[in-house]
């Protein structure tokens, strides 16, 4: 498999761990990644993913953030302990800046929001570290960026509305109305 200027080759070790509790998505992604030359192993839980990361640490991993039995970042941490050179992409349907920062801090190579297709995931796994990723096709709106910031501060304040409002310098009731609404697109 030849590499273009923006990607690295898969290399000798083609092992890929996919961890997701959505069984249908996991099967589709596994099949697509096998077609792209990866040797895929799947896990449907934090426990199974951690066990594989311990016994047979892969060169690549795609880990869902929220799993039924816990947080996918536990799998990322275990993989970093057993194989520091692994390239890990955290994938989630609950995209938030705070979780993206946490994922990258513990060693994830990249962070993608669902729905991400096999091409997006492959590009993230094989991207050269020194190159910047291409700009997003659909960047977040200004309203969404504001909402993400408010959510991050709210989480950092342990979901305390009064403390969050004080730190954001806004009225508590205004903050409550913002928090009660769905996230903007």
Summarize the structure.
By secondary structure, the protein is of the alpha/beta class. It folds into two domains: about 110 residues, Response regulator (Rossmann fold, 3-Layer(aba) Sandwich); about 40 residues, Arc Repressor Mutant, subunit A (Orthogonal Bundle), CATH 1.10.10.60. It has eight helices and seven strands.
Radius of gyration based on Cα positions: 18 Å
Poorly predicted residue ranges: 1-8
Compute the separation of the termini in Å. 37 Å
Strand order of the largest sheet: 2-1-3-6-7
Structural domain count = 2
Estimate the global geometry from the Cα principal axes. Answer: elongated
CATH fold label of the largest domain: Rossmann fold
Number of strands: 7
Mean pLDDT: 82
* Fourth CATH level, the homologous superfamily of the largest domain: Response regulator
Modified residues (4-aspartylphosphate): 64
Keywords: DNA-binding, Phosphoprotein, Transcription, Transcription regulation, Two-component regulatory system
Domain Response regulatory: 15-129
Pfam families: Response_reg (PF00072)
Give the secondary structure arrangement, pairings included.
Layout: E1 15-19, H1 23-35, E2 39-43, H2 46-55, E3 60-64, E4 66-67, E5 70-71, H3 73-82, E6 87-92, H4 97-105, E7 110-113, H5 118-126, H6 142-156, H7 161-168, H8 172-180
Parallel strand pairs: 1-2, 1-3, 3-6, 6-7
Antiparallel strand pairs: 4-5
Helix pairs in contact: 2-3, 6-7, 7-8
């Amino acid at each position: 498999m030849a590499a273009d200027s923006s990607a690295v080759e898969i290399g000798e070790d083609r092992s890929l761990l996919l961890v997701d509790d959505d069984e249908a998505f996991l099967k589709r992604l596994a099949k697509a990644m096998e077609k792209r030359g990866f040797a895929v192993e799947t896990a449907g839980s934090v426990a199974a993913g951690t066990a594989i990361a311990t016994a047979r640490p892969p060169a690549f991993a795609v880990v869902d953030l929220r799993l039924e039995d816990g947080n996918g970042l536990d799998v990322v941490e275990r993989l970093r302990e057993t194989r520091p050179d692994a390239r890990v992409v955290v994938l989630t349907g609950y995209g938030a800046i705070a979780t993206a920062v946490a994922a990258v801090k513990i060693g994830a190579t990249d962070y993608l929001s669902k729905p991400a297709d096999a091409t997006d995931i492959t590009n993230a796994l094989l991207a050269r570290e020194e190159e910047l990723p291409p700009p997003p096709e659909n960047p977040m709106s200004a309203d969404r960026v504001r909402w993400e910031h408010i959510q991050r501060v709210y989480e950092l304040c342990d979901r305390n509305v009064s403390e969050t409002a004080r730190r954001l310098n806004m009225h508590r009731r205004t903050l409550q109305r913002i928090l009660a609404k769905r996230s903007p697109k």
